[in-house]
Amino acid sequence: MNLPSDLYVGFTGSALDRVEPARHDVAALTALAANPAALLLDMSDYLPAAADGALVWQPFTPLPPEETLLLGLIDGVPRFARIDPEAVAAKRWPELMALLDSLSPGEAGTYATARSVLDWHARHRFCANCGAKTAPHHAGWARLCPDCGTEHYPRTDPVVIMLAQFEGRVLVGRQPGFAAGRYSALAGFVEAGESIEEAVARELREEAGVVATAVRYVASQPWPFPSQLMVACIATLADDTVTLDMAELEDAKWVDRSQVEAALAGHQDAVFGAPPRYAIANTLFRAWLVETR
Ligand SMILES: [Zn+2]
């Protein structure tokens, strides 16, 4: 299907021009850092300053190379974040979730970029090849091992998230950690040696005991908790008999169009609570409504 152009996909549409060549060009990087207009995204505790739906930037003064993350340019102005050598891995604070509700998807995308890279530095201080301590490299977009010379790059882990449909209804599931009443599309990590379509079919089989006869891609979004790429799909099933894997899902149920519409509208009497707007599961429900209109 073609995703309607007005459909909201959280964390996408960042205005960043990533100027990748400057990461490898010391003279270019030095010039960007010395630009008096350059700006810093203050990411203390991975919480950005924001106001009126936009990130708030601070004046930037050049940092040592091992603390410099060049995010890119926005409106031609260099944008940086600081790699804190003492930082610990990020958590998901409730106030961040409230903040994300207020950011535009493009601003959230810029935040997602900074957060995922900074969090990766905090989680990957040692060489996976030889165990030596590594240091930031390439303007914060890699780490270099001084002992064996291996370069390490920020990881992105693909996760499939899918609405399974059967005769005008979709299957929604609830994980034990979800907020009260919340149901969403089923999801799982793509494993080594799998295609997206195969991962969708396997996860549906494992979690709900259902057989997909067709899978198609809808849209994707970065998900910086810590570094997933969410790949949203719609799967058509052979039948609607569900056998739950209780280790994965606490409950699952079939819902129809009117029930999905009520959930997305946040109605008090909706049969389930929809995922937040910035999550691609929300986009997926909206895409399914458009497709089956
Ligand atoms: Zn090494």
From the spread of the alpha carbons, the general shape counts as globular
Bound molecules: zinc ion
Report the helical percentage.
10-25%
How big is the Rg?
21 Å
Please state the average pLDDT score: 95
List the secondary-structure elements in sequence, H or E.
HEEEEEEHHEEEEEEHEEEHH
Spatial separation of the terminal alpha carbons: 13 Å
Helix/strand/pairing category: alpha+beta
Q: What is the beta-strand fraction?
A: 25-35%
Total number of helical segments?
A: 6
What is the subunit arrangement here?
A: single chain
Strands, total number: 15
Biggest beta sheet attributes = 6 strands, mixed
Please supply descriptive tags for the structure shown above:
293 residues, alpha+beta, globular
Question: Could you explain how this protein is built, in words?
Answer:
This protein is α+β, with helices and mostly antiparallel strands and 293 residues long. It contains six helices and 15 strands. The strands form four sheets. Strands 10, 11, 12, 13, 14 and 15 form a six-stranded mixed sheet that branches. The longest helix has 19 residues, at 105-123. The two termini are 13 Å apart. The mean pLDDT is 95. The structure holds zinc ion (ZN).
